[in-house]
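ARCHIVE CARD
CATEGORY: sequence design from structure
SOURCE FIELD: tokenized fold
FIELD CONTENT:
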């Protein structure tokens, strides 16, 4: 029997109220156990956190009478860009607009049998109306060392790329990162097999065997047999005392942009101590006939109270591959179509300030200045300007 929208809303409200009541009763019980000396304050806090995690979401009876727990989430990022540019000394039409950078709506389901599934939809496509999958996968966690998934999600390449945009200190990812994720379509989202796990002593791994073609995961933006090439990626990380050290690598057959195989690696160090957050990441790629590329990104931020200043410098150079300024500096002014020749490079500097109104609401503002040129100095492009963003999570 199908429920109408009012009945569905009522059912969800009752479930949420019940979950809240249950949480309140747990808190009262823990307080009593602390007073009686059964638990310490530290132990009670740990138990409360565990109970809170276990009781997130709403439980329903699924097909086959299995119980499924659903957790809904969303992300809105409203952004403003004011960017100007020059193409070999000629001024370009400036960018000056408001838009939604991301409009995510997601749901994660956990079944009684241990299988889980997650779907995240993105309603903020550049061409309207457009609906894209940010993530769609299901999996099973066998143990701490082996969690397997089948689906469409990010492959393990680049710490800045695989960290959620909701937790980044800069409004956009670095030019070096965007070269691999957005310019040559090497990293980011692919459809296939994924696995991850903890190896102990601070070590962890992730691996993917996926379609080489990046993009929408159901039919590769066309016929299901439009691409038969495969790619594989791997990651090894070590974490301890605020340090995260890792190496990622990947091999992509017949890259759609380069037109040849691409082999790339990235190594990174991230250090966090109280409000301090430091990140250094180095990239290198062998693009076969398109020659080599390499770059790096250095970022530093410090959070005091609700404020967080951030600074970042990024550099990318290629032997002969065109530096696509409009790809590496997102939404660059029209006409900034790239620097060609030999020994092409781009430098980008970002300075910003973030304000964390609450864990769910963040205000961000930043200035970016970038310059791209070839080795002979015969082709040059410049971009600079201001960005601002408001982010709301739920």
């Amino acid at each position: 029997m199908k429920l109408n929208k009012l009945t569905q809303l009522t059912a969800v409200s009752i479930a949420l109220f019940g979950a809240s009541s249950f949480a309140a009763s747990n808190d009262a019980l823990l307080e009593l156990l602390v007073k009686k000396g059964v638990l310490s304050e530290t132990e009670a806090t740990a138990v409360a956190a565990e109970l809170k995690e276990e009781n997130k979401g709403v439980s329903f009876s699924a097909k086959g009478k299995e119980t499924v727990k659903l957790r809904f989430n969303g992300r809105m990022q409203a952004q403003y860009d004011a960017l100007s540019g020059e193409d070999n000394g000629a001024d370009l039409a400036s960018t000056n607009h408001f838009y939604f950078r991301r409009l995510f709506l997601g749901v994660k389901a956990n079944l009684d049998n241990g299988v889980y599934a997650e779907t995240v939809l993105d309603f903020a496509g550049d061409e309207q109306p457009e609906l894209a999958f940010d993530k769609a996968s299901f999996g099973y966690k066998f143990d701490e060392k082996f969690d397997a998934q089948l689906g469409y999600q990010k492959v393990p390449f680049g710490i800045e790329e695989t960290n959620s945009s909701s937790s980044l200190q800069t409004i956009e990812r670095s030019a070096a990162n965007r070269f691999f994720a957005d310019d040559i379509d090497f990293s980011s989202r692919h459809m296939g097999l994924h696995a991850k796990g903890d190896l102990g002593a601070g070590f962890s791994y992730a691996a993917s065997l996926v379609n080489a073609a990046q993009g929408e995961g159901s039919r590769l933006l066309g016929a299901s047999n439009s691409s038969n090439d495969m790619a594989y990626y791997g990651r090894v990380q070590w974490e301890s005392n605020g340090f995260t050290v890792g190496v990622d690598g990947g091999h992509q057959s017949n890259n759609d942009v380069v037109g040849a195989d691409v082999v790339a690696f990235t190594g990174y160090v991230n250090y966090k101590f109280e409000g301090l957050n430091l990140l250094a990441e180095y990239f290198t790629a062998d693009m076969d006939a398109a020659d080599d590329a390499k770059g790096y990104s250095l970022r530093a931020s410090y959070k005091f109270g609700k404020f967080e200043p951030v600074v970042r410098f990024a550099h990318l150079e290629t032997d002969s591959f065109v530096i696509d300024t409009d790809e590496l500096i997102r939404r660059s002014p029209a006409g900034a179509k790239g620097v060609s020749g030999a020994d092409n490079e781009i430098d980008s500097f970002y300075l910003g300030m973030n304000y964390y109104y609450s864990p769910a609401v963040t205000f961000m503002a930043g200035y970016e200045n970038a310059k791209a040129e070839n080795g002979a100095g015969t082709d040059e492009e410049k971009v600079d300007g201001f960005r601002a963003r408001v982010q709301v999570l739920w």
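CARD ANNOTATION: Residues 68-393 form a domain with the Porin fold (CATH 2.40.160.10). The radius of gyration is 23 Å.
SHELF: design records, drawer C
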